[in-house]
Design goal:
The chain is mostly helical. The chain has helices at about 1-15, 30-45, 60-75, 80-90, 105-130, 145-160. Helix 2 (about 30-45) crosses helix 3 (about 60-75). The longest helix has 27 residues, at about 105-130.
Length: about 160
């Protein structure tokens, strides 16, 4: 019974986890191909109010305005690139959820791989240095001179302790 309840709960959670798109019925274009282009472009554009949400997912009034603007530009015959260029010229590079690979965004694109490489180099350096250090702990007994070893055995024998 518990297993069935757990499965039902998991199924309900999976159904509720689906993304709800904010596109209103009055925004939808009549041509399915153009509507598909508009939806694809809307998923690439950032909602300026919601910040890390696409305008396709946002209920904000500004996101609706941007969706309508995208559809207007597509209806006017603009290509996807022209629509994006128009919006970037109007709102800046920040309107794109995935910034373009350009000189001003080079650090943004390369920072993560550089950080990972630096971390890997630091780990390699650490383990390389660590392997060159003399052993510590119990192995230090073996670094005694012959005189020190004889004295230690004599002291241990006097206390009736087995040196091995």
């Amino acid at each position: 019974m518990r297993r069935l309840a757990a499965l039902l709960l998991a199924g309900l959670l999976a159904l509720g986890a689906q993304v709800a798109h904010a596109v209103q019925p009055d925004e939808v274009m009549r041509d399915p191909a153009k509507e598909a282009r508009a939806r694809a472009l809307s998923r690439e554009l950032r909602c300026m109010v919601c910040q890390n949400q696409s305008i396709d997912d946002s209920d904000a009034p500004l996101a609706r305005d941007l969706r309508l603007l995208v559809r207007e530009r597509i209806a006017a015959g603009d290509s996807d690139r022209q629509v994006l260029d128009f919006l970037v010229a109007r709102f800046g590079e920040y309107v794109l959820l995935k910034p373009r690979f350009e000189p001003q965004t080079l650090l943004l694109w390369l920072l993560t791989p550089l950080t990972l490489l630096c971390g890997a180099f630091a780990l390699w350096w650490h383990f390389r240095r660590r392997s060159r250090l003399p052993p510590q702990g119990e192995d230090e007994v073996s670094t005694l001179t012959a005189d020190e070893q004889a004295r230690l055995e004599k002291l241990l024998a006097a206390r009736d302790i087995d040196p091995s």
